Amino acid sequence: MIYLWAFIIGGAICVIGQLMFDVAKLTPAHTMATLVVVGAVVDGLGWYEPLIDFAGAGATVPITSFGNALVHGAITELHRDGWIGVITGIFDVTSAGISAAIIFSFLAALVAKPKG
């Protein structure tokens, strides 16, 4: 059943993004930024963790999860280290994913011929 809910929730997030493209005529940058901010706000309200528990990868794979990770890391480190943790927590939680994206993009550029 978890696969069905992951599909439904992840698909619903993607449908919202697609509607932002098609109906609201937002650019990809505006759409991504909006979805990241929505994920951050939802996590700030404490609603994203229950969504992850319910939908699994359906909530952790879309771009809203990046906003969740930023806020979740900042809040966790705020409680542990004080106000300096707001800054360090953002980097602590997201650094592995961002580093992987940079490394794999570089490796793909070495193998594939980029179009310029």
From TrEMBL:
Keywords: Membrane, Transmembrane, Transmembrane helix. It comes from the Bacteria. The keyword Transferase does not apply. InterPro entries: Spore_V_AE, SpoVA. The chain crosses the membrane at residues 6-24, 31-48, 54-71, 83-112. This is Stage V sporulation protein AE. It comes from Paenibacillus sepulcri.
